[in-house]
Amino acid sequence: xxxxxxxxxxxxxxxxxxxxxxxxxxxxxxxxxxxxxxxxxxxxxxxxxxxxxxxxxxxxxxxxxxxxxxxxxxxxxxxxxxxxxxxxxxxxxxxxxxxxxxxxxxxxxxxxxxxxxxxxxxxxxxxxxxxxxxxxxxxxxxxxxxxxxxxxxxxxxxxxxxxxxxxxxxxxxxxxxxxxxxxxxxxxxxxxxxxxxxxxxxx
Length: 203
Description:
Blueprint: E1 5-9, H1 21-29, H2 31-40, H3 42-49, H4 55-67, H5 72-89, H6 93-104, E2 108-116, H7 117-127, E3 131-139, E4 145-150, H8 157-167, E5 173-178, H9 184-189, E6 192-197, E7 200-202
Parallel strand pairs: 1-2, 1-5, 2-3, 5-6
Antiparallel strand pairs: 3-4, 6-7
């Protein structure tokens, strides 16, 4: 049996040039609501950015301010539209080309991201990507967003944990693409780690 090959891509800043979470939240709740939430959490965001705060906690606090109490079905519908637009217009030329090359080679492509499944699932479907490992929103018994995450935020060590679970114990060849410190553990798993900088990918 031939050895399976996987290509794992971070999303924001690797396949795209910029963050996608805040723009998505703005499509759901309006730009003003997102700006107010970010302003309210600005001190915690600054500490997290300096490595002295918990990024996951801050993310949940922002999501709670913006999404808590909203219909999950409505958020998911907005996510499908947003994801389709991202797939059409936000993926860098090099990112699109790298995905296409891996698919032509018969490799299994994976998006591994801290961004939300409500739009990444549609991105993956549109691009022909087989697997998505990412962050999910918590939902209460009434079908409303809680603002909390369902499971862990998919960044840092969690990316490597999710990827190991997907790969299992098989002997596989792994390409991994990332652009930030949150991708280090995933890149360390790969025989072919690739850093993305300013839309360019370099081994």
